[in-house]
Specification:
This protein has seven helices and eight strands, in the order βαβααββαβββαααβ. The chain is an alpha+beta fold.
Length: 211
């Protein structure tokens, strides 16, 4: 059921964290969740994985159209830390972190949502999943989709009124709770992003020693 939502395990088999923000440019979203001192480099998902595997042993021939100076300035050659790739679709920007949990922090979502709205999705390698929604720096809803009644946000009724995600969860199989909730939320917020938006080169940075 998760293959038609973005992101999904077909793209990120070891899990992911993602933040979506309305009305921001991808570069601004990266600044809000990352580091102003880094200069994004434009990379595909495959190139990012290649750099992660090779690190400092990368050669300019391994990543066409990108210089080693650009790679260093972007921070992507750091030995440790989350890779963040940011793009946009239909008025929403998104930033994706493969595998790690850096983007799942509450402060990240609060920053991303300043003067706008933002959605955070986490699907960990262990199988645990979490959804959070914020408006203007306040996390209104934050919950495990398997237990939607246990919401740690300040006003969880806001997201329910906007999206009807609890009905989407209760009307489906328990194993599909996350996918059904995400689908309902993205569709009602008009923040649905096709996975094709992640296939091209996107702005990329790495936050050194952030874990």
């Amino acid at each position: 059921m998760s293959s038609d939502i973005f992101p999904n395990r077909q793209l990120y088999q070891f899990g992911y964290c993602a933040v979506f923000a309305k009305g921001l440019a991808p570069a601004e979203l990266l600044v809000r969740v990352g580091d102003e001192g880094l200069h994004p480099v434009v990379l595909t998902r495959t190139e990012t994985a290649h750099i992660e595997a090779l690190g400092e042993d990368i050669d300019e021939g391994d990543v066409p159209d990108v210089t080693l100076d650009q790679l260093h300035d972007s921070g992507v050659l750091a030995s440790d830390g989350p890779f963040l790739r940011a793009g946009e679709h239909d008025g929403w920007s998104f930033v994706i972190e493969p595998e790690g949990s850096y983007l799942a922090a509450d402060d990240i979502l609060k920053s991303a949502s300043q003067k706008t709205v933002a959605l955070s999705l986490r699907d960990s390698e262990s199988g645990s999943r979490w959804i959070s929604y914020a408006e203007d720096g306040e996390i209104l809803s934050s919950f495990d989709p398997l237990f939607p009644d246990s919401d740690y946000g300040t006003r969880p009724e806001v997201l329910e009124q906007l999206t009807g995600h609890r009905a989407a969860i209760s009307n489906g199989d328990r194993t599909d709770a996350y996918a059904n909730a995400v689908r309902a939320i993205q569709q009602r917020l008009t923040g649905t992003v096709p996975q094709e938006a992640d296939e091209s080169r996107l702005l990329t940075i790495k936050i050194a020693d952030a874990y």
